[in-house]
Amino acid sequence: MDLSFLGTITNPITIFTQADKAVYLKNPDDIDDGIRELVDAINAVTVFFTMSACQGFLIEEQREAHCPETYVDFYVTDEQYPLARLLLGSLASKFSASIDCKVVYEADFDITAADEIVANGMVKLRHSIELYELPPELMKSTYREMVDHIRKFAEAINKTI
Q1: 42, 48, 77, 155: least CB-packed within 10 angstroms?
Q2: Structural domain containing residue 68
Q3: Count of domains in the chain?
Q4: The whole model's pTM is what?
Q5: CATH number of residue 145's parent domain
Q6: Are 103 and 89 in contact (CB under 8 A)?
Q7: What is the pLDDT tens value at each position of the chain, 161 positions in all?
């Protein structure tokens, strides 16, 4: 099969490593306290690491200080994409209309100067979990269930990797 029309000679997907995970997670103070448990649960999966998150509306009295969305985005190391699909599928199945799970294909880039980036032809797979706003008590219980679900997922997966 001739795929030369794609414009890539090799797989254009950026492959992250455990070293990349260490770099991304080196400053835990960048995480909003209100979503820290969810971030920590995702990072507990050996081959996942978060790269962006916002507590958004999770804590009513703090919502004005945060973006209007509540989400966690993560990357996958060692090409373990089936595990990310399994997690996102299980979350979408269990929490249905309370969350949105997706994978975004985003252009990768190199930082060439303090204020300059240049596309490098690679693509990063950003896995995303976005929570929809629910009444406060339901939001708390749904968030707690989600954290517990991902912690159980991490425990099971880490035993097999």
Answers
A1: 155
A2: 4-160
A3: 1
A4: 0.90
A5: 3.90.1150
A6: no
A7: 776 777 766 778 999 999 999 999 998 778 888 999 999 999 999 999 999 999 888 887 887 878 888 999 999 999 999 999 999 999 999 999 899 999 999 999 998 888 899 998 899 999 999 999 999 889 999 999 999 999 999 999 999 98
